[in-house]
Amino acid sequence: MITVATFADVRVASSGRVGLVPTMGYLHDGHLALIRAARAASDTVVASIFVNPLQFGPQDDLSRYPRDLSRDAELADRAGVDVLFAPSVDEMYPEPPRTELQIADLADHFEGARRPGHFEGVAIVVAKLFAGIRPDRAFFGRKDAQQVAVVGRMAADLSFPVEVVPVSTVREPDGLALSSRNMFLSTDNRRTATALSRGLFRAADAVERGERDGPTLEAIVTAEVGDTDAALEYAALADAATVQPLTELTTDAFLAVAARVGETRLIDNVAFSVGADSIVVDRGERLPGPSVLEES
């Protein structure tokens, strides 16, 4: 593996089918699953590490986001990355961007409503990665279901020749979805946080028993999280492609939850693939043992 800091160097080091894994660093097993998926489908695997200031709002603490490039480089190398792209802010934004990307409707609610400007910042940085690296495929985690939809719509609308590939959420053995934010949870808050996945799994069980009513599924999650000290922000069933709220599960969708546990804001979801005769639930993949975050 080589580490480079410019788009030009990434392109020189890449050949064949290029798979891109965009990250903000402090890698965890979710990122490693993306890298493995890219490795299986690519000749060259590029992972980017860039803490993008444009997607942090006034309520977010950019300086608090964890950073450890040497740790990340070791994990990326072991997982199968060929090129680690670790640009400076000046490389990504030689001048403050004057171009704005707004993904109408998809980014207006849920995460978009609670983090104004967040998805606009995501869209800009991903567009620059797609333009500068020119990957054939880009791999994103399903845990950020709204982000997957936003990026996919942006790539299609701007005719980027890249396939956006969603990869199942990776979870701790107790069900908690992997996130770099988990490292900020206290021991008590860590236990509380598992209510998010418990609620989602119970709703998924209900779907497998035949439940299709959106408000009923949302209420299952709300009740589970409401029995804890977590501050629920929303539990919502949404169309997987358009991110519009659904009152009935009749198309591919995700059931999402967001809550604040202590000082840490967490999101999670389960995904539903709706066929003519059945619905396939993607609850994510549980690790058999402690994650690399737990071991850090």
Q: Your description of this structure?
A:
The protein is built from ten helices and twelve strands. The radius of gyration is 19 Å and the shape is globular. 36% of the residues lie in helices and 22% in strands. It has helices spanning 7-13, 29-41, 69-79, 89-92, 111-114, 118-133, 145-157, 187-208, 214-226, 292-295; strands at residues 2-4, 18-23, 44-49, 83-85, 137-141, 163-167, 170-171, 231-239, 253-261, 264-274, 279-282, 285-286. It is α/β, with parallel strands linked by helices.
Q: Which key features would you list for this structure?
A:
single chain, about 300 residues, alpha/beta, six-stranded parallel β-sheet, 12 strands
Brief write-up:
The protein is of the alpha/beta class. The chain has helices at residues 7-13, 29-41, 69-79, 89-92, 111-114, 118-133, 145-157, 187-208, 214-226, 292-295, and strands at residues 2-4, 18-23, 44-49, 83-85, 137-141, 163-167, 170-171, 231-239, 253-261, 264-274, 279-282, 285-286.
How is the topology of this model organized?
Elements: E1 2-4, H1 7-13, E2 18-23, H2 29-41, E3 44-49, H3 69-79, E4 83-85, H4 89-92, H5 111-114, H6 118-133, E5 137-141, H7 145-157, E6 163-167, E7 170-171, H8 187-208, H9 214-226, E8 231-239, E9 253-261, E10 264-274, E11 279-282, E12 285-286, H10 292-295
Parallel strand pairs: 1-4, 2-3, 2-5, 3-4, 5-6, 7-12
Antiparallel strand pairs: 8-9, 9-10, 10-11
| Spatial separation of the terminal alpha carbons | 22 Å
Query: What's the arrangement of strands in the largest beta sheet?
Result: 1-4-3-2-5-6
Q: Outline the biggest β-sheet.
A: 6 strands, parallel
| Low-confidence regions | none
Q: Average pLDDT, to the nearest integer? A: 96
In total, the number of strands is: 12
Provide the gyration radius in Å.
19 Å
Helix segment count?
10
